[in-house]
Design goal:
This protein is mostly helical. The protein is built from five helices and no strands. Helix 1 runs parallel beside helix 3 and helix 3 runs antiparallel to helix 5. The radius of gyration is 19 Å and the shape is elongated. The two termini are about 20 Å apart.
Length: about 150
């Protein structure tokens, strides 16, 4: 059932997952209480960063997706895994974005202190992405593409 979608449909899903990733990452600060000085600094330096993000992400995705063309056989399983991974990242970050912002602001206030990541946020992100990928691999293994014969 999962892979009854035609291969062209999986390409569309993979492209949509890339767009979801890009829009999701850019929308993460929306709704957060960001101090005006930080917002102004981000606006001042983000022009080049935005361009790099909007160029490098599709380029990276194109390289990853192009590898599916090099493999013999259908590319649906690789496109499925790619879509799950790209969609899971903004979904994993969204619930802990406030914690990440607070950690960033605390490090900004004390630039001479040791920079350390917010461990609960990092553990959450790693757990959500790992569960998503594990579920995708299990779904793939239960499909005809997962058999070794």
């Amino acid at each position: 059932m999962l892979f009854s979608i035609p291969e062209a449909g999986w390409w569309t899903i993979a492209i949509a997952a890339t767009a979801f990733f890009m829009l999701g990452i850019r929308a993460l600060p929306a709704g957060l209480d960001i101090p005006d000085d930080v917002r102004a600094e981000w606006a001042g330096r983000s022009g080049r960063g935005k361009r790099a993000f909007y160029v490098r992400t599709p380029l990276f995705a194109a390289v990853v997706l192009a590898t599916s063309l090099l493999r013999p056989g259908p590319s649906s399983p690789l496109l499925f895994l790619f879509s799950v991974a790209f969609a899971a990242i903004p979904i994993a970050i969204f619930p802990v974005r406030g914690r990440m912002l607070r950690a960033y602001l605390a490090q900004r206030e004390r630039p001479d202190s040791e920079k350390k990541p917010d461990r609960p946020a990092m553990a959450w992100i790693a757990a959500v992405v790992s569960v998503a990928i594990l579920a995708a691999v299990l779904a793939l293994m239960s499909s005809p593409y997962g058999s070794l014969t």
